[in-house]
TrEMBL record:
UniProt pathway annotation: Purine metabolism; guanine degradation; xanthine from guanine: step 1/1
Any GO molecular function: guanine deaminase activity
Enzyme class, broadest EC rank: hydrolase
Cofactor: Zn(2+)
Protein name, per record: Guanine deaminase
Any one GO BP annotation for this protein: guanine catabolic process
Membership in a protein family: Belongs to the metallo-dependent hydrolases superfamily. ATZ/TRZ family.
InterPro entries assigned: Amidohydro-rel, Guanine_deaminase, Metal-dep_hydrolase_composite, Metal_Hydrolase, Metallo-dep_hydrolases
Entry superkingdom: Eukaryota
Length: 466
């Protein structure tokens, strides 16, 4: 314990394994000045620790202390049109709304103002870690990384690559895309901020040529550790058909990424709703994370992922908001909708496919495909996401040695959407927050030991209202 460690006292709830919550009523977390968790103690030990003259004591009373949320897949520029244009399926939605909107990020002044609002909104909702897609534009993507750094969010940021099948107002040449990606990676690594990291981000197979994908795989592999890779995979049936026509030489959609060196233990793919058993085996064997984005999957009528099967088969799974395919910036929404999606699967309405070679085939059997519990969904929104993003040793729960990324939840805040009744247990209150709560209940947002929900952050949000 260093001389200025801080003792945060409150009701601690975090996930130790899928479906396994630990609850410490009036427990405490000791955090060093470097923002790292030194120990977690039960109520009985708190009094002794409090007596230590060298420790700062922060008594949070009735509040809950929970890990920060990990949004494994979010498009920062798409926050500009969030909650609008929700009536089309993926490929039409991209052409009608997404591409014209992303093209505006060519202008760095516009990008700065949009990105400030978006990042502030995600952070204020308790997203302590986000894996962002930006756009193809180098300057504005650097600005996004600078803003994430400035507000102190943990962010993984990707310059999007698009050199084929894209409108002429949102396309780059192969060589420019490679050059700008290298420059962006150098820009982010040059910050020497452990909270902000680059990620290689081919938009998806239809918009990234073979030559570009191969070069991106090489850029990822040329660093130690490898630069992370994120993209979209098997989200929509027309998309999958199109990829099949484009790459008859590959065995499957996932195999296209694999053959271009883009699947490894630091890769994670959004959606994967319609992946075959063979693809799921490939993803598991390569250590690729699956980012389940249920709001987007419903909103773009893509399908309901069989998340239980992914977990049973040993894949890493996290959750994503996929703004603006998904209409909510809050991971509470992703958590709730992941439960709804898994309930659809459990009643025989999900993405079963005719996947007979799978040992877990036989969808429709409610017994075999149990819906996610709230504790499991919470695990995916915290630990699961951290593991997908290769941050499992750093965040996700409160094990000593990890960074203190935490939310202080006040269920009784003035104007709270959550009612607390006499006799409620801590877990009752926690569940009510998960299902009914919102950012009003999220009083403080700690990233690496510092509260980032500051007046400055509120001012950033207020600025967008002017
Ligand atoms: N949901 C979603 N899927 C995509 N596939 C390619 N681009 C996108 C995108 O921006 N959003
Ligand atoms: Zn997406």
């Amino acid at each position: 314990m260093d001389s200025q460690s801080t003792l945060y006292i409150g009701t601690i709830i975090h996930s130790l394994a899928l479906g396994k919550l630990e609850v410490l009523e009036k427990g405490a977390i000791v955090v060093g000045t470097n923002g790292v968790i030194e120990k977690v103690v039960e109520a009985a030990q708190v009094a002794t620790l409090k007596k230590s003259s060298s420790i700062n004591v922060v008594d949070l009373g009735h509040r809950l202390i929970i890990p920060g949320f990990v949004d494994g897949h979010v498009h920062a520029p798409q926050y500009s049109f969030v909650g609008t244009g929700m009536e089309l399926p993926l490929l039409d939605w991209l052409n009608k709304y997404t591409f014209p909107s992303e093209a505006k990020f060519k202008d760095p002044v516009y990008a700065r103002s949009q990105y400030r609002t978006a990042v502030a909104r995600f952070l204020t909702n308790g997203t302590t870690t986000a894996s962002y897609f930006a756009t193809i534009h180098l300057e504005s993507t650097k600005i996004l990384a600078d803003i994430v750094h400035e507000v102190g969010q943990r962010g993984i940021i990707g310059k999007v690559n698009m050199d084929r099948n894209s409108p002429d107002f949102l396309v780059e040449t192969t060589s420019q895309s490679i050059k700008d990606t290298k420059e962006f990676v150098a820009h982010v690594l040059g910050k020497r901020d452990p909270l902000v990291q680059p990620v290689i981000t081919p938009r998806f197979v239809p918009s990234t040529s073979s030559k570009l994908m191969t070069s991106l795989g090489e850029i990822s592999a040329s660093h130690d550790p490898k630069i992370r890779v994120q993209s979209h995979l098997s989200e929509n049936k027309n998309e999958i058909k199109w990829v099949g026509e484009m790459h008859p030489e590959c065995g499957s959609y996932a195999d296209v990424y694999n053959q271009h060196g883009l699947l490894h233990e630091r890769s994670y793919m959004a959606h994967c709703i319609w992946c075959s058993y063979g693809e799921r085996e490939l993803l598991r064997d390569k250590g690729v994370g699956i980012i389940h984005c249920p709001n987007s999957n419903f909103s773009l009528s893509s399908g309901a992922l069989n998340v239980r099967r992914m977990l049973d088969e040993g894949l890493k799974v996290g959750l994503g908001s996929d703004v603006a395919g998904g209409f909510s910036p809050s991971m509470l929404d992703a958590l709730r909708q992941s439960i709804t999606a898994s309930k659809m699967v459990s009643i025989g309405q999900g993405s079963d496919g005719d996947d007979l070679e799978s040992p877990t085939a036989g969808i429709g059997s409610i017994k075999q495909y149990e819906a996610l519990s709230y504790a499991e969904a919470f695990h995916l929104a915290t630990v699961g996401g951290a593991e997908c993003l290769s941050l499992g040793d750093t965040v996700g729960n409160f094990l000593p040695g990890k960074d203190f990324d935490a939310l202080i939840i006040d269920p009784k805040v003035e104007g709270s959407p959550v009612d607390v009744f006499e006799g409620d247990s801590s877990l009752d209150i926690f569940q009510r927050f998960l299902f009914l709560g919102d950012d009003r209940n999220i009083e403080q947002v700690f990233v690496a030991g510092k509260n980032r929900k500051t007046q400055k952050l509120r001012d950033m949000l207020a600025a967008s209202l002017k």
